[in-house]
Known about the structure:
Shape: globular
Number of helices: 12
CATH superfamily: Metal-dependent hydrolases
Strand content: 5-15%
Radius of gyration: 18 Å
Structural class: alpha/beta
CATH architecture: Alpha-Beta Barrel
Amino acid sequence: MNFPVFDLHCDTVTELLGRDLKGTTDLRKNSLHIDLERGAALGGYAQCFAFWSTTEIPLPKGIKPEDIFWREVSLLQDAIDKNSDLVRQARTAADIEKNLKEGKISAVFTLEGPAGIGFEPGKLEKLYNLGFRISTLGWNEKNCLTGSHVTGGGLTKRGREYVKECQRLGIAVDVSHISDEAFWQIMEITEKPVIASHSNSRSVYDVSRNLTDDMFKAICATGGVAGLNLYDGFIGKNSNIDMACDHIFRFLELDPEGKHIALGGDLDGCDPLPADFSGVQDYPALAARLMARGLDEATVRNIFWNNALGVMKACAM
């Protein structure tokens, strides 16, 4: 069955921009993990496009993270305008539902690492007005908001302000990439559902980017979701679709109704993918494998679409 797909995280915009920062790759049709033509062949498609920036990686002389960020914004806005027959930007859950009915892809803007706005809570309102609806607090670096899963270190005073401002505006707080300490500090202050847009089960594969059972249960308690990441390095080495399913089934042991599990493939932000998954066109194969292993149609539809849409309604849209 060709279920609609709501994917909470990809890095396609960064790949489109390219290392040369010229942005010559076409979103409509390309050799990346995601393009619009393949997405349009699904039974419906909403994609959260992450705008990535960090202070950790050296940039060409004279280029700042803010420059990268705004180039990415312009690139995706232009791509949406040029391909309006296939895709529309979605700012609300109602937009996404309307686009599904009308056969259009929904593009949701998200922030992976606030380096591009100088880690400034005061700049979030501008992003909200541009349609940004999810934000992490960082990438793999330690910054003025938080420590990461690589560096350790907790939430700072500014980090707490950032969380509160996101939730005041209606931007969902994304805990992927942050440290365990910062995760629990966010759980103490959150007033809305929290998501881990692209994080798997640490019980299945023990790496710091994945969630412990207690972390996943805490996300569930907020009403949030965790999105299945399809990076081999977070699923398990030399992975396949079955191994990716193992993470979903572990989460289902903790969330038997399957209301807090979603998709967050990390497509175009990771390599390799599972051996039998090469891009967005392979999501139906993942759905088929989940059903072959015993999940019913309603549960798969929740994981593939309804859960992400529901949490976006609750905290962002």
